[in-house]
Amino acid sequence: MGQLTYHAYAGVNLRRPTTVRGREALMGAFLLESLDNPVNGSYRSVDDLTELVNVKALDVVLDNYGPANIEVHPKQELAMARLAKRRREETTEPDVEDNGSDASVVSSPSGNKRRQTESSLARDEDSGGEDEAGARLATARSVEESTLSDEGDEDEAEVQQGVLQHTQRERSAPRRAGGAEAGVIKKVQLINFMCHSYLEVPLGPQINFIIGHNGSGKSAVLTAITVCLGGKATATNRGSSMKNLIKEGETTAQVTVTLLNRGEDAYRHEDYGDEIVVVRRFSRDGASSYKIQSQNGRTISTKREELEEISDFMGLQIDNPMNVLTQDTARQFLSTSSPHEKYVLFMKGVELSQLDRDYTVISESLETTNHVLRSKESALEGLANAEEEALKTHDDLQRTRDMHAELEELKKQMVWAQVKEREDERDEAEAKVAGLGRKVDSVKRKEQEANAQLERLSVRMADLNGSFQAKKAAELEPLKVQLEQHKAKLHQADLERKDYIDQDRDIYNQIKEVETKITAARRQLEVEQGRQAERDGGVRAGLEARLETLNANLAEKQAESVRITDELRVFDGRIATARADTEKLMDNLKQQTDRRDEARNQLYSLEQSKNNALRRFHEHMPDLMRAIEADRRFKERPIGPFGLYIKPRKPQWVGVIEVVLGGTINAFAVTSHEDRTLLNSLMQKCDCAGINILVGKRDIFDYSRGEPNGNLDTILRVLDIEDEFVKRQLIVNHQIESAVLIANRREADEFMYTRPPRVQSCYALNPDRPGHGYRVGGKRGVSSTTPVVPRGPSRLTTDVDAEIAKARQSVQVLETTIQDLQIQVRQAEQAGRNLAREKQELLMRLRAIKVDIQRAEDEADRIRDDLRVNTDTGRIQALEEQIAEFLAEKSIYQGQQQDLVQAMNRSKTVVEELRSEGAQIRAAIVTIEEKLQETTTKLETVGGERIQASHDHNHWVQKLAQVRADLEAAQVALKKAADLVESFTRDASGFCDRVDLPEDKNAKALDKEMEAKAQSIADTEKRVGMTAEDAEIQLNKARDTHAQAKKEVEALKELIQDLGLANQVRIERWKKFTKMITVRAKSMFQYMLSQRGFLGKLIVNHTEQKLELRVRPTENNQRNSKSREKDPRSLSGGEKSFSTVCLLLSLWEAMNCPIRGLDEFDVYMDAVNRKISMTMMVDAAKSQSNKQFILITPQDMGNVPDLMGRHVRVHRMMDPRITANQRRLDDM
Hints:
This is RecF/RecN/SMC N-terminal domain-containing protein. This protein is α/β, with parallel strands linked by helices. The chain is built from 29 helices and 22 strands.
């Protein structure tokens, strides 16, 4: 009888059974998996599901083990519970689970601990292991009996006492040597990882201590294991991402972990061998990769999923927050976390929370299956109806024979009825052609009359407009240009005059300041001269007189030099201004030239479109329209260009509207994509590429809800749009129903600032430029204005002659403007040359003055030298030089002031003259405009009459084209009708001779009667669709299907009920299991604290989900100490670390992962606490021979006993100052 090992609840962590019979027992797991996966849209039947299970093999396992000895996944156990129930119903044997409960061994649900029977334990070859297993079996049985009691009246203190006694016996029992053969780490290799260039650490299968000074890279080993086996960088508290773990100065890093893979629990030993090598390589650019290799170095996989499979198989819970703890994590868990957070971490650590989630998923799956069952029950009614329908099949087969004969007679009448209808259609087509011919003559006469009226009004308007434009161009426009020029000159003159005033004020203040300085210096000079006269004779007086004369001349020359320098500076500014004015004039000349060329192009386009209005939309538009008219492949004739259907009611808005609508004015609309493709090909052939084609249905929707108040003009309201389809397309694409038109720009801006409802945009007119405008308003009430500038000739205007006249006038005005600008450019260039010549003359004068100044200064220097020889001090000379400088400075300022006064007078005169000239020009403009007003009034009157005449003429032109098109279509229809009559008569004669038709029946009535007969026959044949024999077979099949479906639904009900009961049993067991693990954790915690002489307890409240610690340190190890229990946060550093170790060891007892990690756990411990903690950890590790411990400490291990055994390895990290070279750690 073999041993069966299986994970209790961890979902994917499946250990393979050790015997064939054990593996066969797990086949029952496929039951629930099949229920979770629908087949062909429905669930498998119970019979199909039971075929997946070797029931005989399951019976053998149940006989030998009993359900209590087989620990399986909850889903699989639910399915097995169903099979066990069937087995009990078939036999009279007592409940196997109850009978076998005494042989069960309770283990933590978080691990893969084996359940063994007493008989299997007795055959263990190791006698020490036999005693240990026997002791554990007896204690576990007593714990289970006391903890899992249904009555719940056992004393928890007694249970804890039993666990403590068992733990003491277990720790004192002899241990087996060796360690785990699979799932533990053999070796860790680091390359460019954290502070290590290269490091290799061999590890033992049980206890491993890594020690060294701070900074030697001890924690890097634990961090490397975490990230290599799939953990996240953030979980290590060493960096926020993998690239933070790369050694400084390097771009890539590599971590390698070698896992043992031996024994009966090896993972795919045939592929990997005795070792599994996991290599993770990552770089600073974020790239990361895995390589999972066999013992001989062959790469088996590079996918993370394979690593996850290995971790699940071996129980490597790297992401378990209680499995690998850093110092910060442990301190946070004990001191800073709340009771609820401790409870959550505790449940995650022992993986009870995972089992809770699994049972919740099972309950949800059962609810889903119930929903499917209800839908299958509703489907049974349909199967019953199908069975009833099959009973009616035979009777319906005999009713169709007579109806076939009647249908043949109706077909003959139908053939000749269709001939009669085609004859009636031909007669109607002949009458329609005759009526349309008369209509064409009538419409043609009206079109000729409208054209004659339009031509008369056009001639009249051309005469008036020519007279008006001639007077305006000859008298008014030159004055307006002259007025603008005077405005610019007046503005420049005002600026110069203000500048002169500011300069004069500055010079006046400077003169006052210099005069004050001169007065003070002269007083001082008189005092010094009086003193000098007393000591010297008349020679010195003569030298001083000569020096004074030279200083006066020198001051005049320097003043003149300053004046010329200032004039040169002014000339530089004037030359720069002249150059800027010239460039501005040249830029303006270029702009006007471009505008003239554009106006000429517009004039040419207007002249070309005068003879054919279609040319306004495109040069080749007439060719395209003829191609569309000739092509009969369109499902529905395209509509376009849109401009043909648009007539403006207010011509002043035409320019703005054309800019808003843009290319849509030239666009076409079709109702299908096939027509769009055909139209696009015609455009390519006619060289009309670039014209938009809109595709849409003729949806005449209501747009009134999107319009603003009725007293506002919108683009839609100022346009007459003849086609409703075109109107809807413009509404959809340009929102013309909500685009408001307000002539005054300021009123429009104020209107939009209020954010009016149902208004998308607003436009205003530019009063200075007809046809131009502004887009006014912005979002959220923000004021903004954007110019609207029309480009090209108008496409919506109905008065082409007026547009041509306007374009010619624009060209003439631009020509005049260009000529004036050319003259101004030449004048500006000449003025610049004159200024340059005058500047050169001033430069020559300045050089001569500087020569004179130099000579005077040389002579003055000689006199000063003579005076300095005859004078004990140079005080007088310094004062005289200072006075001379002040006088020269004053002279310069006075000269500048005189120049400024003259310039100010000249500027004032210029301003007055310019203002007088501007007033004269404005008066002349007003006089001319008054004279032109009468002509303007006449022109507007005639223009309005001509627009109306143009509308009338265009209406009759389009009407005539439409009537002619209707006539052509009617003639084509007549020919088709005649051809159809001939074709139908020929076909009908070939079918049968002509028959008389009933007077009360036409083709439509006969068609309905035939359709009813044929439908009745078709319905019967469709309903029957087979012979009587086939109908009998179908009936029997329907009955069998109905019965089978009912049987399956009943069986599925029973299965769901059994699964629900089994799930409830597992949930109750989970609750007891949780209580058992809690009791063991409490007991182990008390036991661990007692090693130091401490008292304490774990307070676990599963209802409120809280876990609290209470620790009472005793004085001098006296257990009867009066000290009270403390919260962990109030403990000293050593006490806190010792409590952490006790808590971890108690939790590790309930965990299954073969690897435990703890980093710097003894930093705050004193020597006593550390020694006791280390001894406890070594004893705990020895008692768990199949677990590997990796413990990191910066302290020496000399005072820790029992470190020389085969089960303990101590690794010392090299000092950080010598870790630059590659190194390898050897066992101590």
